[in-house]
Design a protein that fits this description.
Blueprint: H1 2-23, H2 29-33, H3 41-55, H4 65-79, H5 82-91, H6 160-168, E1 198-199, H7 202-209, E2 215-221, H8 228-241, E3 246-252, H9 257-263, E4 272-277, E5 285-289, H10 295-304, E6 311-313, H11 315-321, E7 330-335, H12 342-350, E8 356-361, H13 368-372, E9 380-384, E10 390-395, H14 402-427, H15 441-445, E11 451-457, H16 460-481, E12 492-498, H17 503-506, E13 519-525, E14 530-534, H18 540-552, E15 558-559
Parallel strand pairs: 1-3, 2-3, 6-8, 7-8, 11-12
Antiparallel strand pairs: 2-4, 4-5, 7-9, 9-10, 11-13, 13-14, 14-15
Helix pairs in contact: 3-4, 16-18
Length: 567
């Protein structure tokens, strides 16, 4: 009886192998890209770019274009990586496993032989590949078998019990009819979340999800519900594709019953999917997904609900926006993208309480705005400190993958914030009155600013006094400028100037450069090359009176001696 059962199982297993071998497609990456095996990296890259443009689904609507496009990308992934290409050339497998082919890619089957220590000679499916055999939306039809040479008692080098263990989750136990038999989705017992999905409970939700600035995609379910595995597979796939910008998790409402009831997410007849989003408000909130259970629709829903804290600016708005008085440092992304990139939206959520985010679309590096900023490659990130100093934080950003790019830019932002805090502590720029420099002069006091009020100082004491006065006056004039009845002449920006380091700047207004004065105010109209200077006692009342007179047109302006320049 035992021999008969064993022979039956062997026949069943061999049938599976035969079926998989018929269904599988063995793809040679060199043939896919149409290059020789000794092709250079440059030749491979050129072939990839040519074919990917030819078969891109957005341009090629022919049947099979999508599949061909995936094959091209998979082939390039192997041949563009030195280690994967070396492994493929030696073994026919990009991972270095001697076998019949190079792994599961693009919906095709590739056989891998195990063997040796750690492989156990088992005939295995990868943990979640078997779940996609039915062709669920969002999954690929990939089956992965391993067979090696340490097969124990089995004459075929594998344990038949392992076949069922990997197929259905749970060992054979006492045999087919034994009480230890568990058939995964067909039997009882608790299910664990896929390896990339975090099991969420009340404590973890408060610690990791709420108000962390990160978008979460969450599945609420009970183990007995149909469709749970389907949603788990597509949520995990979306999580992998957006790793770094999105976290994924699941809540077992059978175990966390009170928690699910508290959040109002307990499922009734089928699993429910939620996103913890910062799309419209600074405080995160749970929003339920009610669309079709397809990968495409759910991913679109997720991307639409990424944070939107970055203000999209036109080029004209960009040049004037940085004149506004704000306490936080500013970051702006320059890119050729029509819409705000997902990475930038994700970063705007994570750092929303530490920076003010902007982004703008530019044509290329020849754009006058880009040239003036000193940017030589796109995309680029510009930072503006609270003192008005502008820095090109990074240009020519290369996105290897979303997670590493977000991490790299996050570290860059951390360093920029530390620098801003140092300036704030030593220079008292917390209120946002910038210090004039060559890098920010055109933005603060350029031709698009009707009038720029500059507080000039020569000592630390003078700077502190002017900063305090101008901060108060600027807030009052800001309220005045927000009055709809105010005319265009009411637009004014404020800045500080260190005369001890920028003495040549003042020669544009006075032959002596106001050498005898420790503090003064200069109202400058760049467009008209005119100015007016206040050289009296610098008190709050006098400064407020001078600014009011400037705004009302009661001050006489004189022609500048020359164009003021900063070093």
């Amino acid at each position: 009886m035992k021999n008969t059962w064993t022979i039956s199982m062997i026949f069943f297993t061999c049938s599976l192998l035969l079926y998989a071998s018929v269904e599988s497609k063995s793809l040679d990456p060199y043939k896919v890209l149409g290059v020789e095996k000794d092709a250079s990296s440059r030749q491979i890259q050129k072939a990839f770019h040519k074919l990917s443009l030819q078969y891109h689904p957005d341009k090629n609507k022919n049947k099979g274009a999508q599949e061909k496009f995936e094959e091209i990308n998979n082939a390039y992934e192997i041949l563009s990586d030195e280690e994967k290409r070396k492994n493929y050339d030696m073994y026919g497998d990009s991972r270095g496993n001697p076998g019949f082919d190079g792994g599961a890619h693009g919906g095709h089957t590739y056989f891998r032989s195990g063997g040796g220590p750690g492989h156990g000679g088992g005939f295995t499916f990868s943990p979640d590949e078997w779940q996609t055999m039915g062709g669920q939306s969002g999954g690929s039809k990939s089956y992965s078998f391993s067979f090696g040479g340490s097969g124990g008692d089995s004459p075929f080098g594998f344990d038949v019990g392992d076949v069922f263990s990997n197929f259905f989750g749970g060992g054979m136990g006492g045999g087919m009819g034994g009480s230890g038999s568990q058939f995964g989705g067909f039997g009882g017992g608790a299910r664990s979340s896929p390896k990339n999905m975090v099991s969420i409970n009340s404590q973890l939700y408060k610690k990791e999800v709420i108000e962390k600035g990160v978008t979460w995609l969450l599945l609420s379910y009970t183990p007995s519900m149909k469709g749970t595995q389907h949603f788990e597979s597509i949520i995990e796939e979306i999580g992998n594709s957006l790793k770094g910008a999105l976290e994924v998790g699941s809540v077992n409402c059978e175990v966390e019953s009170s928690f699910c009831k508290e959040l109002g997410i307990r499922p009734k007849n089928k699993p429910r999917v939620y996103i913890y989003s910062y799309k419209s408000i600074e405080i995160g909130s749970l929003i339920e997904y009610t669309g079709d259970g397809t990968l495409k629709d759910l991913k679109s829903f997720v991307q639409d609900h990424f944070p939107k804290f970055s203000k999209r600016l036109t080029l004209t708005e960009f040049e004037t926006k940085f004149n506004t008085i704000e306490s936080l440092p500013k970051l702006i992304l320059l890119s050729t993208k029509k819409d705000t990139p997902v990475i930038w939206r994700a970063l705007s959520g994570m750092f929303r309480k530490r920076f003010i985010f902007y982004d703008t679309q530019v044509k290329d590096v020849s754009d006058p705005l880009v040239e003036n900023l000193g940017v030589d490659k796109l995309p680029a990130v510009i930072g503006l400190l609270s003192n008005g100093e502008m820095k090109v934080l990074k240009s020519g950003i290369h996105v290897k993958d979303m997670k590493s790019t977000i991490k790299e830019l996050g570290l860059l932002f951390d360093g920029f914030e530390k620098k801003n805090k140092k300036l704030g502590g030593s220079n008292s720029d917390n209120e946002g009155i910038p210090l004039l420099r060559a890098t920010n002069f055109d933005l603060i006091c350029g031709e698009k600013t009707p009038v720029c009020v500059i507080g000039v100082f020569k000592s630390a004491k003078g700077r502190e006094k002017l900063h305090k006065i101008l901060s108060s006056v600027s807030q009052k004039s800001l309220l005045r400028r927000q009055n709809p009845a105010s005319g265009p002449r009411d637009s004014v920006s404020y800045a500080l100037l260190d005369a001890s380091n920028q003495s040549s700047f003042l020669y544009a207004f006075d032959k002596s450069g106001f050498k005898s004065l420790d503090m003064l105010l200069v109202a400058y109209k760049s467009r008209k090359s005119k100015f007016s200077a206040f050289t009296g006692d610098v008190t709050f009342e006098e400064v407020e009176r001078f600014v009011g007179s400037v705004l009302n047109g009661d001050v006489q302006f004189s022609k500048t001696r020359q164009k003021p320049t900063l070093k």
